[in-house]
Amino acid sequence: MLTVTPESFALSQTFTISRGSKTHAHVLTVRIARGGVMGWGECVPYARYGETLESVAAQIASLPDGITRTQLQSALPPGAARNAVDCALWDLAAKAAGKRVWQLAGLAAPGPKVVTYTLSLDTPEAMRAMAARHAHRPVLKIKLGTPDDMPRLEAVRAGAPKSKILIDANEGWTPEIYSDLAPHLVRLGVALVEQPLPAGKDDMLAEIARPLPVCADESCFDAASLPALKDKYDMVNLKLDKTGGLTEGLRTRDAAGQLGFGLMVGCMVGSSLAMAPAVLLAQTAQETDLDAPLLLREDRANPIRYDEHGVHPSTPDLWG
Predict the structure, then answer these.
(1) What is the spatial distance between Cα 277 and Cα 273, in angstroms, rounded to a whole number?
(2) Angle at the Cα of 256 from the Cα atoms of 253 and 260, rounded to 5 degrees
(3) If I label 122, which of 31, 33, 108, 204 is the partner at 20 to 30 A Cα–Cα?
(4) Which of 95, 113, 239, 242 does the annotation list as catalytic?
């Protein structure tokens, strides 16, 4: 039996990007029970991709009982609905077999990964204060994407002078803004910039100078989306809510490597249940952006562990 349940997790503080703000993580939890065993998974419907809680729940509810992971790949398109079901089926299979998902998938035993911590878009003064509070973290990711981003970037660098800095513009810049900012990004030691231009309007990246690595996020979904990104991007950000689950995530990861892309593994703002399969995907990534549970006031039981080593693989009590 397959069930889908909407759930909400309060954030510890308002989280803002160039598209808007949120105070809660609204997720869908899928549970699949077969033969006395229950597997579960989570997804975060994302309005940027035309998804709502209702539309994604309807996609999931349309699936037949007994669907397999193989059948699922063609039954639903890449996206949040397929992700939650795919990850629930992996969890179900692991519990039924008495093994871990990484064993079933033929992966090496996972370990902790240094994790990026995301700073919400705010005033320069507030962002400097946030950066100072988190200056002990090795990697900070800054949400930008406005015409007035330089004071914010300068403020974060002043607040966290030793941290590695990544920038996520969330499609908020024009080619002119990015070209103007790029030399300053290099001067301030920014390691990469993520999705500076809108998806579908990013051809200019193949023509203008890229003095630091550019990572595709909204332009990248599954393996089929990768060839069109060649010559425009240096890295891709894989999120299970975009690939449509761990099955396609692993395939996309391998295809990205064959095409010469560097790899970031990211997430939507969800709970530890959503991070657990993504940690497996991130084992070979250069950047691991799986910090969403650190932004929550409340989380799942048996949550993912974060410490000075980064984000750890889940225990079987949570997933996989």
Answers:
(1) 8
(2) 140
(3) 204
(4) 239
Task: Exactly one of 95, 113, 141, 143 is catalytic; name it.
Answer: 143
CA separation, residue 153 to residues 128, 163, 164, 169, 267 (Å): 9, 13, 12, 12, 23
**Helix and strand tally (H, E) in the chain?**
10, 13
Q: What is the pTM of this model?
A: 0.94
pLDDT digits (tens, 9 = 90+) for 258-280: 999 999 999 999 999 999 999 99
Contacts 24+ apart (CB under 8 A), 171-174: 171/18, 171/145, 171/195, 171/196, 171/197, 171/198, 171/199, 171/218, 172/18, 172/144, 172/145, 172/146, 172/196, 173/145, 173/197
pLDDT tens readout for residues 15-36: 776 567 788 999 999 999 999 9
Determine whether 143 is an active site residue.
yes
Is 232 an annotated catalytic residue?
no
